[in-house]
Specification:
The chain is mainly alpha-helical. It has a single domain, classed as 434 Repressor (Amino-terminal Domain) (Orthogonal Bundle), CATH 1.10.260.40. It contains five helices and no strands. Helix 2 (24-31) crosses helix 3 (35-43).
């Protein structure tokens, strides 16, 4: 029996599950990154965040940086 592969979690989905009810601008302030960075990551526009940015996002989301990186890549793939 074949198992269905679950679609990859996008950054927007990760943000919605890890910071429910918090707007992306408020999250950007809490994560200490620019609101434009968060906006671009949600849209799949950002190429690759700096390592420090990734660490700040992961800390603010209370999750593993690898999960954040994978979500960013999924957002980029979904945008194309």
């Amino acid at each position: 029996m074949a198992t269905k592969k679950r679609p990859a979690e996008t950054f927007a989905q990760l943000l919605d599950t890890q910071a429910p009810g918090e707007g992306w601008e408020a999250f950007a302030i809490r994560a200490k990154v620019s609101s434009r960075t968060v906006w671009r990551l949600r849209k799949g526009d950002a190429v690759r965040p700096y390592r420090g940015t990734l660490a700040s996002l992961a800390k603010a989301l209370r999750c593993d940086p690898e999960r954040v990186r994978a979500a960013i890549e999924a957002s980029r793939a979904a945008a194309n």
